[in-house]
Amino acid sequence: MTPSGHTTGNSADADIWYAESPTGASGTWTRANLTNYSGAGYRAGLEVSSLYDSQGKLHLIWNASKTDGVEFGSRRCRIFHWSQHYPAMFYTVYNADWDPLNGDCFGNSSTMNVAKVSLAECNDRLFTVFTSFNDPATGHTDDCCTSAGSTGANGEI
Fold it and tell me: pTM, whole model, 2 decimals?
């Protein structure tokens, strides 16, 4: 239990795990906790995308919310990338640490400043697509849908 009453290991205190098997048969799977988060920093959100590239190496990309180690669920976040090419490294793909209240509105309750991450490869290059809400870096800070009688945000892709 965290000091604020969150249960340790709940969905707000998440890690990125992956499992691999040479055959897919029962008993041949090897699991790994990629992030093993603790303390202040970032925690994985609800989304992760995976890809085996043309060289057969696994890539994972995910959004992770900023935390002080006590309070979880911040909309401030980053998109991270990990690869079997350099397994000791995590790369920040996109920094979304802005204050979400600076915009007119923001995404749903389980959505951070960036969401819906996906990963693809073309011509030996990796590409990611994601949705960003009220992003001051792009100048898109008007993502609120008021015409439909709703205050939810429509993010930019």
Answer: 0.82
